């Protein structure tokens, strides 16, 4: 999608601090980190939000979570714990309309979120 910032990072049109990528998924350090480890994991293909996930594209969700679990290990937060967050829609706090999952770790995280 031409005006999507995460599509542009996925295609290499604008730089991203890439920590992992394969044919379907890219993971980048968040530009405004909220924890010592704050990585965004997303499909390279443009999917606006979790609202657009159904049986036709559900496999990418398992792949993203597997990448997240592997990154948690390689970034050294798996043992102490971490959080995976998806903000969906306006009330969910989604600010970039290209589905992505936040991997947050490296400090104690409070609950509930704001
Ligand atoms: P959301 O609020 O949609 O759940 O999360 C969007 C995230 O994208 C925010 O944490 C924000 O800091 C991050 N972000 C916005 N623009 C960029 C960018 O150009 N590069 C990177 N790496 N992260 C971005
Ligand atoms: Zn996009």
Feature tags:
114 residues; alpha+beta; HIT family, subunit A; 3 helices; 22% strand
How far apart are the first and last residues' alpha carbons, in Å? 31 Å
Tell me how many strands there are: 5
Biggest sheet architecture: 5 strands, antiparallel
User: Mind telling me the CATH superfamily name?
Assistant: HIT-like
Radius of gyration: 14 Å
Say which molecules are bound, naming each kind only once. guanosine-5'-monophosphate, zinc ion
Low-pLDDT segments, ≥5 res: none
Question: What's the domain count?
Answer: 1
Q: Quick one: overall form?
A: globular
SSE order = HEEEHEHE
Q: Assign the CATH architecture.
A: 2-Layer Sandwich
- Count of alpha/pi helices: 3
Instruction: Report strand order across the widest sheet.
Output: 1-2-3-5-4
CATH T-level topology: HIT family, subunit A
Oligomer: single chain
Averaging pLDDT over every residue, what do you get? 97
Broad CATH class: Alpha Beta
Structural class: alpha+beta
Helical proportion, percent range: 10-25%
Q: Provide the β-strand percentage band.
A: 15-25%
Can you tell me about this structure?
This protein has 114 residues and is of the alpha+beta class. The chain has one domain (5-105): HIT-like (HIT family, subunit A, 2-Layer Sandwich), CATH 3.30.428. Helix content is 24%, strand content 22%. It has three helices and five strands, in the order αβββαβαβ. The chain has helices spanning 5-11, 59-74, 89-92, and strands at 18-21, 25-29, 37-43, 82-85, 101-105. A five-stranded antiparallel beta sheet has the order 1-2-3-5-4, with helices on one face. The protein is globular and about 35 Å long. Bound molecules: guanosine-5'-monophosphate and zinc ion.
């Amino acid at each position: 999608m031409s005006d999507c910032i995460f599509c542009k990072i996925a295609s290499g049109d604008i730089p991203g601090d890439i920590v992992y990528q394969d044919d379907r998924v890219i993971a980048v350090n968040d530009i405004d980190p909220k924890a010592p480890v704050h990585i965004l994991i997303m499909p390279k293909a443009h999917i606006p939000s979790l609202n657009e996930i159904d049986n036709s594209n559900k496999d990418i969700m398992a792949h993203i979570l597997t990448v997240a679990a592997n990154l948690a290990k390689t970034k050294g937060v798996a043992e102490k714990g971490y959080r995976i967050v998806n903000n969906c829609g306006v009330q969910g706090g989604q600010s970039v309309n290209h589905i992505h999952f936040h991997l947050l770790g490296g400090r104690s995280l409070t609950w509930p979120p704001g």
